[in-house]
Amino acid sequence: MIRYFRKSIVFGTTVGVVGVALLVGLLFKLVAANFTAEQAEQDVVTHLNELVNTIESTASVACFAKDAQLAKEVVNGVIKNVAIARVVIISDGQELARAERPSQVAGIRTALQPVQRKLVSPFDPNQTIGEIRIEPNHENVDQGIAEQIRFVSVLLAVQLAVIAVAVMGIMYRMVVRPIKAMSDGLHRMDATTGQQLPIPARHAHNELGRLAGDINALAGRLVAALFEEHALRLEREMDERKYRGIFDNADSGIFVADGRGCLQSWNRSFARLSGMPDTAAAPCLADMPWQAPEQLAALIEACLAANAGQAADLELLPAGQRTSTWLHIALSPIGVDTVQGIVSDVTDRKQAEDSAREMAVTDPLTGLGNRLGLEQRLLARMRSSDAFSLMLIDLDGFKQINDAMGFPVGDKVLAMAASRLASGIKSSDWLARTGGDEFAIVLPGLASQETAASIGGRLLGTLAHPFDIADMPTILGASIGIGFFPGDGHDLPTLLRNVELALDRARAGGGNCFEFFDSAMVKAATQRRQLEADMRQGIQRDEFRLFFQPIVDLASHRTLGAEALIRWQHPEHGLVPPDSFIPLAEETGFIRELGLWVVDEACRQLASWHGAGHALYLSVNVSTRQIPDALSLAILLAATTRHGIPPGALALEITEGALMGDMAKALAWLQDVRAAGFRTYLDDFGTGYSSLSYLKRFPMDTVKIDKSFVREMGEDGSDRALVEAIIAMARSLGLKVVAEGVETAAQLALLRGMGCGMGQGYHFSKPVPAADFLSVRDRIDATGW
Amino acid sequence: MTPRRRLLSLLAGLLLAEPARADLVVIAHPRAGVDQLTREQVVNIFLGRFRQFPSGIAAEPIDLPPDTAEKAAFYQKLVGKELAEINAYWARLVFSGRTQPPRQASGATHMVELVAGTPGAIGYVERPKGESKVKIVFELEAAR
Q1: Candidate CATH numbers 3.40.47.10, 3.20.20.450, 3.90.180.10, 3.40.50.2000; the one for domain A529-778
Q2: What is chain B's alpha carbon radius of gyration, rounded to the nearest angstrom?
Q3: Where do the CATH 3.30.450.20 domains begin and end in chain A?
Q4: Cα(A524)–Cα(A283) distance, rounded to whole angstroms?
Q5: Strand locations in A121-211 (E)
Q6: Domain A250-350, CATH class in plain words
Q7: CA A475 – CA A417 distance, rounded (Å)
Q8: For A97-106, A283-292, A539-548, which range has the lowest pLDDT when averaged over its residues?
């Protein structure tokens, strides 16, 4: 009861009020004591002064008359006053009378000064005749002060007591009792039956009344929420029963787990997928035989941290099994530190994906990596920044084999080449087939040119052995371009391009060799690009010219026509010889455009000569790239028609090589143009692979004997025999013969002696511009050389 | 005193005061040993402070009877006090019993006789016309 009272509002408030009042009272008492003392002292001084006023005139008479008796009377009368301790009258420096009160108490507190006053003559206010001095009775003064303070203190104490009692009473009546009543009411109240807390009487409109109202409102809301919750729970129970069946019988594994991956519930499918023993009391996902358990932990963590669904494929490798299972796990957060997961077996899809990914980077024929695989491998290597060497290998002459023997044979050759290359490198090196007859080798850690050269040589050696195909040994060469990372290119495109350049160089060097990349190749490539751009511009700016070298009938000494030879009048480099730009034009395909221009220009020139009455013909060189579409029969006929010349005035010169590419097409084209009336020349005869049987197979009018044979004819008996044989054979096949490169009169005489029909060469004339041609012809016709 | 008596005395006073206002002198016995006194010395002697001449001879002041115009004029001129005040002064001293007020002559003539006939006596009269047996030691001017 007492403890309860100590915690009560009444007690607390009272203690507070009394405490504050005591504090204030104490302060007040201090101030009042000072003030009271001062006031009392002031009163004493006033009192003494009044007393002096009363006795002053009598004292001055006594002084004037020096009447000690009268003075004694005066001081005796004064000392009767208890406020006075001592009184003295002095006349002219001598004490006239004195009265004193015996002191009873030691330790006087107050320090009042005695009252002193000069006494003047009763008859002359200017004449001082003495002095009266009255000392106050300090004992008496202190007593008065103490009494007054005591009184004030008692008054204050009474006041405090009354206030404390009043506060307790008011607090009890106004606050405690109504709160107690409300508390009792709350204890009795049952809000769910709609009971309300009664509002305390007489407090309906104050804070307590409002509090009671608020409590009732809160109770109402709580009850409403309770009912709602109850309804929801019922609903949920229904739902749960409904979904339980789905959960139990679902094909997918379903589980609920906490943040550490420990399962709270799971269905049969999950147990089956995870291979979890039924006996496990509270199994954790982490205990399952994952390939990388940390992935699962990270997945759960990410799901909870983002409060969003997460999914991943995880690999499960049960103990004692060789094949792993892939599970797709989709997690979604469901409340605090809990996730729900749906699990399905994606092993088949995963394997399909893996094999598809594998296939994307694999060459199916050889089982090696393909170009994409090579690029991926190179990028990975470059990321690790370790030095390595890259070799690009191109099989020389493979296309011909493929063309000649068909794809199955070609594929066999490729497979054999691949296995030979694989046997020539270390197991840490990596071989890929990047194109039709192109291979690449990545050699990690290889940075020395010497070592690379020895490997390159070894590889060339293995490929140089004959390939035994269809019981027919076939010899292939190879070209190898070699580059180093990072020296020959920091990034993939640069390195690949540079090694390609090295490969191009090796190929251009005739094959069966390897070349290291060097920066000059980049420069050369740049120059080639510039040259190509210049050529394309050159044709627009009309920088190309046709020069004409006479073709002379050796029997009649008459000029029959000429070979049209292209020259390029470059604005910076001057006259560029054709072997500087024709190979590039062939390579880039620009030869098609250039060839059209040549035919058109030749026709124009023929028309001009024919118009002037000169019955000449012209032969133009046709590249393999122009056959059959770029210089089709329709295009040729359009040109001759446009310029109004007969097709027979134009001869088309084709090299043996041009016929080798796609023989069927070349043959058809030749037959077409020849049937239309154009003449066909076989150029540079004797230099290529062509066999004499070609002469029979291809519809040709004329054979041009290569100038190398003609040049060697004088010294070498075999060449002379060869030329003689060609002439004889041509004659027997009904073909005409033009001997190229006739430079001396001796050669001319020899050829004539052999019965060669026509000749061409510096002995007659070098190639000359159109403007000079007619005068050259006239000279030849007139002089015979 | 009835109002009539007061009126009478006032009239009498007016009549008698006329010659008194003319001149009052302090006289002493010729052998008192002083020729001249200061006002202060006169005051001291008449009001009982020092009853002694500067010469050392004891002084005996002689006063006129109360209710005389000369007496009133004398004290008025000497210390500027009314007779009632002088009487009150003496009443206090007489009460203690140590000092007595001056001896009293019956009139001006008696005053002169007493002064002439008593060594050390000192009194005050209107200025005498001719020769006299007393010595004038102080001349009272108009009141201060």
Answers
A1: 3.20.20.450
A2: 15
A3: 250-350
A4: 70
A5: 128-136
A6: alpha beta
A7: 11
A8: A97-106
Q: Which residues of A touch B81 (CB under 8 A)?
A: 123
Contact A65 B99 (CB under 8 A): yes
The residues that bridge with A651 in the sheet, in sequence order, are: A619, A679
Report which of A287, A288, A283, A286 is spatially closest to residue A273, judged by C-alpha positions. Answer: A288
Structure-block tokens of residue A98? 């004195």
Count CB atoms within 10 A of the CB of residue A453: 14
Contact B92 A69 (CB under 8 A): no
Nearest CA to A261 out of A340, A315, A335, A319 is that of A340
Label residue B136 by pLDDT band (50, 70, 90): confident
Sort out which chain A residues have CB atoms less than 8 A from B92's CB and list them: 58, 61-62, 70
At the second CATH level, the architecture of A2-161 is 2-Layer Sandwich (3.30)
Reported ipTM: the value is: 0.77
Residue B8 has pLDDT above 70, yes or no: no
Class of the CATH-defined domain A361-517: alpha beta
Name the strand (E) or helix (H) holding A343.
strand A338-345
Q: Which range, A54-58, A468-472, A617-621, A683-687, has the best average confidence (pLDDT)?
A: A617-621
Q: Residue B105 maps to which CATH number?
A: 3.40.190.10
Q: Which of A748, A738, A665 is nearest to A714 (CA)?
A: A748
User: In which order are the strands placed within the sheet that holds A263-266?
Assistant: A263-266, A253-258, A338-345, A325-333, A310-316
Q: Which residues of A touch B99 (CB under 8 A)?
A: 65, 67
Q: Is A440 helix (H, G, I), strand (E, B) or coil?
A: strand
Q: Exposed/middle/buried for A150, CB within 10 Å: 0-12, 13-18, 19+?
A: exposed
For residue A306, give both structure tokens.
Answer: 């983002």
- Note whether A170 and A199 are within 8 A (CB): no
Which amino acid is it at A137? N
pLDDT at residue number B1: 43
Using CB atoms, which residue from B48, B81, B96 is nearest to A69? B96
Structural domain including B102 reads 3-140
Q: Which of B47, B97, B98 sits opposite A123 (nearest CB)?
A: B47
- Please give the pLDDT value at position A581: 84
Chain A residues inside the 8 Å CB shell of B43: 123-124
User: In Å, how far is B93's CA from the nearest CA of chain A?
Assistant: 7
What token pair was written down for A289?
């035989």
Question: Total structural domains in chain B?
Answer: 1
Distance between start and end Cα atoms, chain B:
31
Q: Among A68, A70, A124, whose Cβ lies nearest the Cβ of B92?
A: A70
Six token digits for residue A499: 């090694």
Residue A505, pLDDT above cutoff 90: no
A interface with B, Cβ–Cβ < 8 A, is 58, 61-62, 64-70, 73, 122-124
Angle at A543 between CA A537 and CA A545, to 5 degrees: 140
Question: Over 90: is that where the pLDDT of A233 sits?
Answer: yes
**What does the pLDDT read at residue B17?**
43
Per-residue exposure over A341-362, b if at least 16 CB sit within 10 Å of its own CB, e if not: bbbbbbbeebeeeeeeeeeebb
Q: Is beta strand A477-485 parallel, antiparallel or unpaired with respect to A472-474? A: unpaired
Residue among A434, A579, A585, A431 at smallest CA distance from A500: A434
> In angstroms, rounded to a whole number, what is the distance separating the alpha carbons of residues A760 and A747?
11
Q: Pairing between strand A513-516 and A544-553? A: unpaired
Q: CA triplet A43, A45, A50: central angle to 5 degrees?
A: 95
Nearest CA to CA, how far is B101 from chain A (Å)? 11
Q: Which residues of B touch A61 (CB under 8 A)?
A: 89, 92-93
Distance CA A777, CA A686 (A): 29
- Strands across the sheet with A513-516, in order? A430-433, A438-444, A388-396, A477-485, A513-516
